[in-house]
Design brief:
The chain has 725 residues and is an alpha/beta fold. It contains 28 helices and 24 strands. The relative contact order is 0.07. The protein folds into four domains: 137 residues, Elongation Factor Tu (Ef-tu), domain 3 (Beta Barrel); 225 residues, Protein tyrosine phosphatase superfamily (Protein-Tyrosine Phosphatase, Chain A, Alpha-Beta Complex); 109 residues, Elongation Factor Tu (Ef-tu), domain 3 (Beta Barrel), CATH 2.40.30; 228 residues, Protein-Tyrosine Phosphatase, Chain A, CATH 3.90.190.10. Strand 17 and strand 18 form a beta hairpin. The two termini are 52 Å apart.
Amino acid sequence: MKEMKRFIAVLLVVVLSLQIPYTANAADSKTVTAKVTEVQKYGNLTLDIKPKELYDAGFELGDILKVSVGDVNLEIPFCTSYSDVDTGSLVVRDSKDDNLLIVAINMGNFSTTYKVSAGATVSFSLQEKGGYLSEYLLRQLVRTNNRSDYSTDSIYANFRNISTKGINSGVLYRSSSPINNELGRASYANELTKAVGVKTVLNLADSASEIKKYVAADDFNSAYYKSLYDAGSVKTLNMDVDLSSEAFGKKLAEGLRFLSKNKAPYLVHCTEGKDRAGFVSAVLEALMGATYDEIVADYMTTYENYYKVEKNSEQYKAIAKSNIITSMTTIVCGAAKGTDISNVDLAVATQKYLVRIGMTTDEIAKLKESLAVGSQYSAKNVTGTVKEIEKYGHTSTDILIENFNKLGFEEGDMLTVIFDNGFVLEAPYLDGYYVDNGYPLVRAYPGHTNIAVCINYGKLFSIANVKVGDKVTIMMSEEKGYLTQYEIRKLTRTNNREDYSSDAVFANFRNITMGKIAKNVLYRSSSPVNNEIGRAAYTDKLIKAAKIKTVVNLADSKENMDAYIAAEGYNSPYYKKLYTNGNVLALNMGLAYTSDEFKASIIKGMTYMSENKGPYLFHCTEGKDRTGFYAALLGSLMGATKSEIVADYMKSYANYYGVKKGTEQYTVISTDVTSMLKYIAGTDKLTKANLIKGAKSYLTSAGMTNKQVKALMANLSGTSTKEKK
C-alpha cells in the first residue's frame, strides 16, 4: 500500500509536470516584482499583486522560487497553505480564499526575522521548476466548515480529552476556539466545554479586546465560555505562532502559572486547536510522562478530525515529522532538526524547556501537581467497559440499565460520554433512537439489559476508534436537557393487526408514484420474510396482489432468509417462490447511510433493478429507515420534489405511530429525511438543490454506469416497457 501511494504521488508529479509551461532554466525565467502592502498580525507579508501574476509568469504550485527582499535572497516553495511546509520553514502562499499573495514563515515571523516592513520591494524568479512538487502533493489538506461533513460535534470542534500517560481522564481537554466563531465551530466547542464542566481555560490565541469583539458579534452563542471569562477563569495570552520565539515562551510560562493556580478540568485552545494548542498540549503531555508515540498520536488526531488524514499513511508521517516532531526536537529538546528523539526522556527535556522559558522548579512542581489530580467528573457518573460491538456499530457496555437508572439517570437527560482514548460525546439518554440521523445517544433499549453508546445511522466504534475492553465514563451534563425533544420523538406502536385500519397500513405497504415513477411499478413495505414484527404474511399477500417480480431486501443475508423460511409457522409462500427463483437480492445492510459500505450496497440494489423487470419491491425490516433512504434516493433520481419525498417518508410514521402532518412531532421527525436529501444532493441548501443531479452523481460516483442509471430510470418510468411494445 505504501509503495502504491508513493507511485501515485510520483504519477501525479509526472501528470502535473506535463501541464506546467516549460522553463529551460532559472536564468530564462521571468522576474515578478511586488510591494509589501501590509505586515499581518503574525509577521506575514501581504503583497500588492495577486497570485495570478505568478501563474502568468509561468510559476506553478510546487516550484521553488528565488525571493529577493532587499539584500536577502531566499529559496522558497510556492504553495497554498502554511502546513505545506515544515514548522519554521518559508512559504510563498497563494491564499486562495482571500486571493492574496503572502510571504511567510510557517509558525514564525517573517517581518521580524528578515527586518521587512510595509513598502519594501519583493521580487520572484524561478529557482527550480517542480522542485517541491512531490512534497506539496503529499501535504495537500482540504477541509470544510460544514458540521454535516463531520461525524460528531466533537470531531467538528476538534474537542477531546487528553488522556496520555500521567494525566487522568477528565482533567485536561483541548479544542478549537469556543469563543471565536470564524470557523463556525465556537458554539459546538462551547457546549462541549460546558458538558465536561471545564473550570479553567488557556486561550492561546486572543486578547481581551478580541474576546469583547466576539461577544458583541451577531453570531455569538457561547454563553458558558463568557461566564468563565467573566469569572476570571480564562487566561488570554494572544500568542504569536512563532513557537520558538522568546515572546511565545514568556507567554506560555505565564499561562501555565495561571493553570497551576486554578482548578481542573482545564481547557487549552487557540483558533483551530491545531498548532499552538497542539504544541502546548504536547508540552503538558511530555511533562507528565507521555510517550513519544502518545504525543504524536494526539497531535495528529487533529489532522484526522479536520482533513481525514489516514493514520500512519505517508501523508500522516510527513505532517507529523514536519510539525510536532520538529517542534519537540528543536524547541523542547534543543536538538538539531532531524535528530531522533524517540528514545529521549521527554519529561526531563520538557522540564528543562520550561526552566528556559522562565518557570521556576517550584512552579513546575505545582503545575505537575495540578495536572496529576484525579478524574474530574460531575457528581453523578459511572465508569464501565465496552463489552460488545453490535451489528450496526453501536458499543454495548457492561453497565446494567437497572443499575444506571438507580443512580438517578432518566430518559431525556443530557449526558457526557468520555472514552479512555479521549473521545468525547454529549448525548441524550433515551430508550429509542430519538435523535437526528448521525447524532449520538446513550441507549437503554426496551428488552435489553445493558447501556449502549450509539450514533443513529452511524458506526460509533469506527468513528470513535473504540474497541472491546475500552473504558468509558458516562456522567450527567444536564438533567432533562433533552426531555422536550424526547417527548416529541417518543413513538409507540402495537404489532396487533386489529389496531390498524387496513392490511396495507399494518404492513407499511404502498405504491410509490412520486416524480416520474409510473403507477404500479415501484413498491415499498415492511419485511415479507422476517416475521419478528408480525407483518410478514400480510405483506406477502399484498406483494402477490401487486404482481411483484423483483425484490431488493435491504435488511437480510441469504442465511437470514433461509432461517426465516425454515422456521415453524412461516407463511409467506409468494416471497419464498420469488426467492427460490432467484428474484430476491439480499443486501444485509447496516444503518449508517453515509458509510461507504451502505453506498456500495445501494449501488448493488439499484443495478439489480436496472437489469431486471418490475414491478419492484424494496424493503428492510420495518420498511422505515433503510427503506426510507432507498425511496428518497429513487424519488430524487426520478424528479420528485422535496415535499413529495418527505410525505412518502413520513407515511411510515403515520402508518405505525399515527403521527399527523402539521404537528411539531411531524416537523421534528421529518428532519431525518431532509438530512438524507442533503447527503444525496451534496449540499445543506435544499431549496436550491438539484436532486436529480445529486442522485445521479451519488450513483455514478460509486460505480454505477450512466447506461445503468438510464436503464433504471426507464424501468421506473415505464418507458422501457412501452418501447419494447
